[in-house]
Amino acid sequence: MNTTRDDALRALLVGRVTTTRRRRWRLPVLGIGAFAVAGALTAGALVSSGLLQQQADPIDAKSLIDTGAAGDVSFLADPVERTSDSETSLTLGARPTDAAQVAIGAQCAPPRTVSVTVDGTHVADVTCGDAGRIIDLHGTTSTPTLDLTPSTDGGYTVWAAWARPDPIPGPSVQQQEALADGIVTRTEYLAAWNRYLGCMRAIGHPIDATTQTQMFVAVGIPGDDYQADARCYASEFGDVDGVWQTEHPSPPGDDSFGAQNYVPATDDPRYAQ
Amino acid sequence: MGTDHGEDADDWGAARGGDGEAYGRIFDRHRERVRRHAHRLVPVPADADDVVAVVFLETWRRRDAARLVDGSLLPWLLVTATNAARNITRSAHRHRRLLAALPPSADAPDPADGFDDGPVSRAFRGLSLADRQVITLCVLEGYGEAEAATVLGVARGTVKSRLSRAKRRLAAELEPTALDQTLPEGVRS
């Protein structure tokens, strides 16, 4: 039997998922990305030359981290990568102290996924060309081997490195104040949204968003802005957004609910202020 | 171990693509199972309700780490509940503003209809986190060692040895009189 709290929690969860932008880091953009893409594009040539099964030299990750290219993940060791056209494996370097997670990504053409298995246990499916992701390898050996199986044959490159996700900032003082009384008004909602836009502008990732008349404000986030979005959203808007959507739950199956024109004075006087 | 095989995998994939209703269906499917487990973990009903909320919020927040077993997210949810309940005050802190926005928990149930808080539950809560994780999956919920290994991210042999030790510790926690009561199947072995 559903309780009121169950219904509210469900609406909150649905809202969180719907509004969550995909967190990703732009790791493949510079050094590794250039290498990985090159590896994928030249896979055919490498197959014929028999070089695909060679373990590549570790790539210097520090320069990526220093330039910010690693985004919201910090490497704890140099990445390693491997290019292949079929099943292969990739052995990580020695596990740094307390390291338990590995950042991993793949590039390939045509697009496909690469299944990653460690000690016989499937741990992830990595989509080529997608952003890197973190996998948890606590409890495995000190130098675990990642067994890689592509969904279809063809050249692909996988890179991996011991890593630690960077902490996402907590909510700003203004966001905390907006939530202090347990209710998010329309004014507080839009103020938080505008602080988010200001945050994105301030760190060099302006978002083109002019419409503020919908029930739920919405904007597309270009891929290059995901990293900035993750931080600005958490700092300025995330919790307020979650509470606002909890206060205004979408009817089941109504995908257009959030896009409806919102007239607080007549439609929603409790939250109009 | 449920009939959600495949459904969870489809819904989890859809949720990760931004389909909130898909995550809502996972919540519908497993909410009560997680709640029953939460009541085993924390004696205060309101805390158990917070555990349920934290489990689903944390599972989404840490979605990159979540592991499905045979297409089911339930084992991951149960382990997340075990972890969250270890210190519900700290676990809830991260989500305190969202929890505060939820209606209060329903009135406490009649003790006669309440969840078990007997010696086994108390002994269970006295175990270490690692012991509770493996007892939860392999004894209370009936998952196999291989399935538990997948969820916990450890080798199957590690689960086997942890389980053996955890059973011994659980038995040691129980008074002789309690052994005659509601000991879950498998704990005596």
Unreliable spans of chain B: 110-114, 177-189
Would you report the number of β strands of chain B?
A: 0
Which word captures the global form of chain A? elongated
The H-and-E topology of chain A, N to C, reads as: HHHHEEEEEEEEEHHHH
> Can you count the helices of chain A?
8
What gap, in angstroms, lies between the N and C termini of chain A? 35 Å
Shape of chain B: globular
In DSSP terms (H or I, runs of 4 or more residues), the helix count of chain B works out at: 10
Helix amount of chain B: 55-70%
Order of helices and strands of chain B: HHHHHHHHHH
Radius of gyration of chain A: 22 Å
Structure description:
- The complex is a heterodimer of chains A (273) and B (189).
- Chain A is an alpha+beta fold and 273 residues long.
- In chain A, 33% of the residues lie in helices and 19% in strands.
- Chain A is built from eight helices and nine strands.
- Chain A has helices spanning 4-19, 31-41, 43-49, 62-66, 173-179, 186-202, 226-247, 264-267; strands at residues 73-75, 80-84, 88-91, 101-108, 113-118, 121-127, 133-136, 145-150, 156-165.
- In chain A, strand 5 (113-118) and strand 6 form a beta hairpin.
- Chain A starts with a helix and ends in a 6-residue tail after the last helix.
- By secondary structure, chain B is an all-alpha fold.
- Chain B contains ten helices and no strands.
- The longest helix of chain B has 22 residues, at 20-41.
- The two termini of chain B are 21 Å apart.
- Chains A and B meet through helix 1, strand 6, strand 7 and helix 7 of A and helix 2, helix 3, helix 6 and helix 9 of B.
Salient structural properties:
heterodimer; A: 273 residues; alpha+beta; 5-stranded antiparallel β-sheet; 8 helices; B: 189 residues; mainly alpha; 62% helix; globular; disordered C terminus
